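Bumping with the actual sequence this time:
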Amino acid sequence: MALDETIAGPLPGPSHPLVRGLARLRAARNGAGEAALGVFGLRIAAAGFAYLAQVMMARMMGGTEYGIFATVWVWIAILGHTATLGLGQGACRFLPAERARGDLAAMRGFLIGGAFASAAGGLVLALAGLAVARMQGGLLAGPYGELILVAVCVVPLFAFQDYLEGVARSQGWPLLAIAPPYLLRQGLIMVGMAAAVLFGAPAHAWVAIACTLVATGAAATVQGVVLLVRLRRRLPPGPRRTRWRVWLGACLPIAAGELAASAFGFVDVVLLGFLAPPAAVGLYFAATRIQQFVVFVSYAASAATAQRFAAARAEGDEAGLAALVRVQARWTFLGTAVVGLGVLATAPLLLGLFGSDFHDSLPVLAILVAGGVAASLFGPGEDILIMLGGERLCVGITLAMLGLAVLLCLALVPALGMIGAAIAMAGATALRGFAMAAGAKAVHGISTLAFAWGRGAA
């Protein structure tokens, strides 16, 4: 008789529940890791496209026009992410859970209703923004006037594509989620801008926004068609059922959180637009575009695992949930640190491609990278709160950190300029990561810290 059998009895066979559970756990961990690596690779490629596009625009437009373009693009992103009413993130939460429960009618209702709601929300927000600009008066008469009129058309398309990204993520299709908005759209913007200038258009910011409009429409169309074809293979035709009270009850707080998160991500650029000349905004924005290489590590991990958190909880697989959190937290921090060091090592070259003046952005980039690495130490606390319940706490944390970032920027930018904005954002980013981790622990009993051994769901 084997020694193990003498001590602990016969070894469990392959059909034993413990063996099956461990196999599922290993499969979940391996699948999440492979998906995260795939998403990370795609996002790095997308970041390369975006970086080249920004370099080209900065070179063609010059610092002032580039700063104007950056300011308007930031507002498009803020309004576009918010206009989905949280249904993009909600897709990652509800669609896997509805499938796990076998409620295909609710899945169909969410998919169709979410698409219409996102596009309509984008149109309403864009028109509201235009109305505010008209009441203000000076915006439409100044250098931002032409850009605002074009941006009104971009926002609904941006919102619709943001929803499509969430749906693709919910089904475990990271390539379809990421490639159209971050590879195809960026590539079309780059090609469109080059072609427009080649055929005689001025290298002005409004031309770049017009190219963004065309590129966003084309990329959203491609993504929508491919997604529809793939969904029809997975989800057969049938009745639809809506649960708007449940969905919006969770998604509207998520939308508020997305607005707060978008504002948090861009508040430094927005405030610089009010407190500094456009050229300074362009210098700062270039640093944030390079710093995105670091942020993409966390994004890749979230895109690969956030929907798995919801599915694991719906299936009652608490061990698998704890394992996914543990794996994501550790590898996200390590990946963020490695990429951050790589970005800083190559920063002089990367910034130099924008132009000789952009070397002044190096201290800004270093501070922003440090803030991102510090935040990654606290793991996927935000994903846990959004996917498992706790979205209102998530919104509250983000709003509090947004307020802190605004106060810090207002205090530091007048004295330190771009450096002050970078210090404010790095500090607020790290503190936000800590607060999200504390919230996830308090609400769900799950520690998300990168190297807190022996944790799990309470």
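The tokens above came from a reply further down the thread. Residues 17-82 form the longest helix (66 residues).
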